[in-house]
User: What shape does this take?
Amino acid sequence: MTEANTKKKHKISLAPIPYFWTAEQVHDYYERMAESQVDTFYLGEVICSKRKALRLADWLAIGKMLANHGKEVVLSTLALVEAASELSVLNKICANGEFLVEAGDLSAVEALSRVGVEFVVGSSINVYNHDSWQHLKKLGMKRWVLPIEHSQQDIHDFGDLSGCETELMVWGRLPLAYSARCYTARTHNLAKDDCGFICDRYPDGLKLATQESDEFLVLNGIQTQSAKQYNLLASVPDQSVDIYRITPQISHSEAVVSLLRKRLDGQWSASQVNESLIKLFPEMEMSNGYWFKQPGMVQHNAHAC
Amino acid sequence: MELVCPAGNLPALKAAVNAGADAVYIGFQNATNARHFAGLNFTNTQIETGVAYAHERGCKVFIAVNTYPYSKQMPQWHSAVDAAADLGVDALILADMGVMAYAHKKHPDLNLHLSVQGSATTHQAVNFYAQSFGIKRAVIPRVLSVKQVAHLVKHSEVPIEVFGFGSLCVMVEGRCFLSSYATGLGPNNFGACSPASHVKWEQKDGHLATRLNDVLIDQVPDGESVGYPTICKGRYCVNNQTGYAIEEPTSLNTLAILPELKRLGVAAIKVEGRQRSPAYVKQVAAIMRAAIDQCERAGDDYQVKPQWQADLAELSEGQQTTLGAYYRKWQ
Assistant: This one.
């Protein structure tokens, strides 16, 4: 590690809220998190366009509030864009003129590169090699969030990543898949067009277990997540990463942010971090497999100190 | 509308050509394509034979190089692109931007098609690939309703190919990590979903269970049949109910909407199934050929023959078919 790297300021980001929370829950959450050590906030509905507790104007207002607290604000676009109406909202977000935008798919990259503004490439855009990275960088990518299945070695194999920030998801359920179908509605025997916003009953997603009662996945509308919490808090910092991303959950986000800060600043050992997490989430199963080139659901312990 | 059929080996390619496919798509015997199964796919010599066979009969050949290489794997994908160009195929089906950039620059005259693994669900995404890499066609994921397909086709800069029959991916292709989460190997990084190396069939206590890297995907009482353990088609427990929480074993079948797809300007209909037998390919290709021909000839008088439906149902997962996301209520 070079001297420059050791002095690097490791930043913390908060991903968009993946679940359907009420407007009140969302506002409360950001009022609280504005006081936290999060550096960068990603805002917006990224899963389902039918969830309209907040409109673009509301997200912009939250963005302004956070910016007034000295935070960096990024607007995120839908991961799966299907309808013309969704594309039109996406284009409005890309043309907001004030905040940086995180592209959830290539529709957004097209819109952003067309007008020549810099952008963030979200983790659901497949960047597996330096050539793909280079192509997006030429178009204006100023930061990329690593696709979830990349290992630490895969990142290091990219080689020179200078001139563009690298962001790594270190805490939260893994976003595993997106579909046209809403699985939360399906569970309630409802069609997506007549869902009654049933996903508001599950502010932390809906658990799916195997027939042997092993919690395997979490249904979140059209998104499927891992049931296990992806946890790299003990495995970071890493020399290639500039920003460390936490996914919002209905409880304990502040505590996780402060644990991560202590870890990134070298104040806490891996085992101190892990012990605190077990106290905070005594029931929760965790995994870190991808980072160690193993299946995502695996908990690899070699690096636990 | 062009009929594009799968071939996992030379006999399947010949079967598809003879049954009336306008194009056949194939892959190399390695992880560069999204049907990376043991015993499947083509050597270069077989490709030469296949291309000659198809071209003599007026049928095109496409090669899929549609997985995502990590930086150090890039040379192998470059070789696959170069080999495809040398073998005189009619198009390369690609997903990765880096691979596309290479193919576009090195072989400017080679037709590039965007693979379904490229996850383009809007005309803006398709046009992005067209502007960046000069793609000549895009295959779109099985997530759009007919109305959404119409909008995309209308505003796309290139012709659009859609899936017409075969196993149904219910997740957006190119962005599904279910298999990767359970096994470390998935469509993007390995070219296969639920790789056979991680599948276990287990007979125990009067049950037949299927497991993927030890995760129980489904189980049935002895004597009943259970599907291949694809995660999205397993039976799980949600809110104390056990069932197919994501999707049942079923195949996509668009016979009923072929005239609509034609009317809205779809350029080609793709059949899934490079892992299937030559007999399967022959039957599906023949039925789809007959249906598309009738659709072209009869226009509004097009009618689905009950025999087509019955034969396709026999060839489908779980003997049942669906219109999938094309039909809004499925969603």
Remarks:
- Residues 1-5 of chain A have pLDDT under 50 and may be disordered.
- Chain A is about 30% helix and 20% strand.
- The longest strand of chain A covers residues 165-178.
